[in-house]
């Protein structure tokens, strides 16, 4: 931030488990972002959060929206509490950056995106995996067509979530709160990254099940075959029933090279015999602790969102890009239910 530009005013709503990396990211961005207030309905937990990270507590959501210095709202609530909150922010002319997924259902997600479009406010969706250094390197290589035509894709998300302490929490893994299981809550990050690198999927053939590891309403294991719009084919396996949980892995097979992203690390092997590595030593949140990852990716995404608002452009991850992954997940679940190939609309 140069030329004496004033700090970007941000209001935060929600301060649960998923808020920690955001709080650390906002602390690191304090030179350019002014957290005007944090609101959470549970006052005791709000006070603890604000004392921990040094942010002011807001009396209400309405107070944040009424603050003329608040330019945007960072929304970290569960998916079932989003639509009205986004509509209120849009009416107040506040931009919105919020956690994935957009909402529990595709229809609700589409309404949220439309609400922001019609109000002329910027909507960003948190998909921090795009902002890993290795992901950015591969995205640049794809944009430059460095390795030739994409032919095949393989995505594995072998994560673990325990019944006790995770799925036993009220609402966890339910349609009413989360909107689904492993696809919309965990694998959505990797699926979004895959689409950003590989383009849209035309059709899917999928199986979705709940293993005997978990007692839950929704799926904890999905496998699917994918047909991409560019002619490439792919396979996905995503689960939270793979103890002790390992890093997600995305392999792209190009005409002249193969590239594998494993959590935050990239290995490219070209057919000329060259090996390229890029990335960072980090955990990925694949094990029992869902928050076991660095906050730098969140910081990079928040900074991109602020820059997008300031320069009247779409953020790298926005409502419209998020709808692509919602449509893919919908098609995968429809294919599993119907036992047949489903075209992605």
From TrEMBL:
Signal peptide (UniProt feature, chain positions): none
Q: What domain of life is recorded for the organism?
A: Bacteria
Its taxonomic path starts at: Bacteria, Pseudomonadati, Pseudomonadota, Alphaproteobacteria, Hyphomicrobiales
Ranges for the GFO/IDH/MocA-like oxidoreductase domain? Answer: 136-252
* InterPro entries attached to this UniProt entry: Gfo/Idh/MocA-like_OxRdtase_N, Gfo/Idh/MocA_Oxidoreductase, GFO_IDH_MocA-like_dom, NAD(P)-bd_dom_sf
The name this protein carries in UniProt is Gfo/Idh/MocA family oxidoreductase
* Positions of the Gfo/Idh/MocA-like oxidoreductase N-terminal domain: 9-125
